[in-house]
Amino acid sequence: MKALSLQRDSAITLSVLREAVSRFVGERKWEKFHSPKNIAESICIEASELLEIFQWRTTEESRALSRNPKNAKRVSQELADVIIYCLALANAIQMDMSDAVLSKLRENSRRYPITRCKGTAPRRRNHGGRKT
Ligand SMILES: [Mg+2]
After folding, report:
1. What span, in angstroms and rounded, lies between the C-alpha atoms of 23 and 31?
2. How far is the CA of 120 from the centre of ligand 1 (A)?
3. Cα 50 to ligand 1 centre (Å)
4. How many angstroms is it from 80 CA to the middle of ligand 1?
5. Which residues have C-beta within 8 Å of that of residue 88, sequence separation ≥ 6?
6. Which residues contact 18 (CB under 8 A, 6 or more apart)?
7. CA of residue 4 to ligand 1 center, whole Å
8. Which sign does the torsion angle of CA 104, 49, 67, 64 carry?
9. Average pLDDT over residues 10-14
10. Regarding the domain delimited by 12-95, which CATH topology (the fold level of the hierarchy) does it fall under?
């Protein structure tokens, strides 16, 4: 895997991105459309657009796809759409995303301990029908 250039990711905080999304929505007076339901639906729609880029491709083709600048741009745009709506949902319900992500990673670490899961694909355990 090539070294990632994450200069912008290192410099820009999550709260800066949240504020940018909030400003974009507010300037257009779109808050009234940003119910949690509508935004959650939009996350799924944008995730589907991302998935469509990889539809019918083999695993190797999917890995190679982003080496083409045109495809890389499509992937980055759809991934950005997903993230923008995730940030919009966090704004709409006033959720601390850092807290949520770190908390979920801790939970996942307990659920998938390294000693049991290293190098194997994670499998869903029975959680009484609750999906998390
Ligand atoms: Mg899109």
Report:
1. 10
2. 32
3. 7
4. 8
5. 21, 25, 34, 39, 42
6. 87, 90, 91, 97
7. 24
8. positive
9. 93
10. Helix Hairpins (1.10.287)
Rounded to whole angstroms, how far apart are CA atoms 15 and 97? Answer: 9
Q: Amino acid letter at 75?
A: V
Domain ranges across the chain: 12-95, 98-132
Checking if the pLDDT of 129 tops 70, the result is no
Give the helix ranges, DSSP H, for 55-117.
59-65, 69-92, 97-111, 114-117
Interhelix angle for 69-92 vs 14-27, to 10°? Answer: 80
99 CA to centre of ligand 1 in angstroms: 27
Confidence band (pLDDT; 50, 70, 90) for 5?
A: confident
Distance 29 CA to ligand 1 centre (A): 20
- Give residue-wise pLDDT tens across range 69-125: 999 999 999 999 999 999 999 999 999 999 999 999 999 999 999 999 999 987 766
> Any idea which residue has 């994450």 for tokens?
6
Ligand 1 centroid–CA 31 distance in Å is 19
Distance 73 CA to ligand 1 centre (A): 12
